[in-house]
Amino acid sequence: MIEMxxxxxxxxxxxxxxxxxxxxxxVAVKVFNPSTRNFFNNERDIYSLPFMDxxxxxxxxxxxxxxxxxxxxxxxxxLEYAPYGSLQDFLRQNSIDWxxxxxxxxxxxxxxxxxxxxxxxxxxxxxxxxxxDVNSRNVLVKADMTCCLCDLGFAIQMEGAHYFHQGxxxxxxxxxxxxxxxxxxxxxxxVDFNRLSEFASRSALYGTWHRRSWKER
Length: 217
Known about the structure:
By secondary structure, the protein is of the alpha+beta class.
């Protein structure tokens, strides 16, 4: 049962819903429309990889294609619910002490380290994953004040001189893979300079935390 509408992302809306089968009884439902289905497919594929279960990557519960006569098909990701929302919104409304700053920073670093690592066990394999859009809007604050990464629509898998994006294998020279890993997402899409302030607001996570923590001193 969908209970409320807590937020809107760049390519989908996010709803809070109740689900008895999960701890806490709530999940976040991220809804994509047909025009953003490729981002849904990419997130679903990344979350579904083996060994993606990690405390500092938002938990993946499942996915659904919802058909209704009242409107176009909806593509839904069912994810772990983080009660404090995005780190960006949390820091706008709260100051944090040094210990909490360190705890949050460690949790983000652990999440990134797990994404970047590759794992292989028996017949299951997880390639290295580059998030490519890490900012305070794409980090969630959990009930225990640790953080988890979310929003993997731009993420890519990498292996050797190959990378995989939206289900398709691409080839890159080994020397250029670092450019692919860290390529700014706005270089893939035309930038509306009337919205330049939106891009300017994506300051480094450390800088954001540093300013907020110093207010406590």
